[in-house]
Amino acid sequence: MNKSVRVIGIDPGFAIVGFGVLDFDGYRFSAVEYGAVVTKPDAPFADRLEIIWDELSKVLKKHKPSSMGIEKLFFTTNHKTAIDVSQARGIIVLCAKKHGVDVSEYTPLQVKQAVTGYGKAEKQQVMQMVKTMLKLDKLPKPDDVADAVAVAICHAHSAGRGANILKMR
After folding, report:
1. 29 within 8 A of 102, measured Cβ to Cβ
2. Which residues are the active-site residues?
């Protein structure tokens, strides 16, 4: 029986935090759970951050991933959004740390490269590969969830190439 590793991928945000928990045996992926933490736009920002912490803590306690991959932020215009997403991302990274989960960061280019073999792939190509690799009937929704699953695939692949962040189960 092959040992597998359990990882979680995160697409950070403050309105929607996508997550994808996968098992990877070195050859095949299997989806454990994927979904989103959604906060209400009219809630005070501090309350939204607390919801992200609380809900992500539940996911980490339930699935006990050995490590987390999270997408690096890339903003060109909206600085207010960049600051708010950065704060939420800080909460996510701290939550992982407090639960003993190592964190690695990946650029969108790295994620696309790992999932499709081409760093400039279109979003639809990435989504189709996520569906194919996990043998899913339909794409995870919303897009933030599919993006998080893609980050988890990238993270598992990167860890499999010699990164010392994963503890085999």
Report:
1. no
2. 11, 71, 144
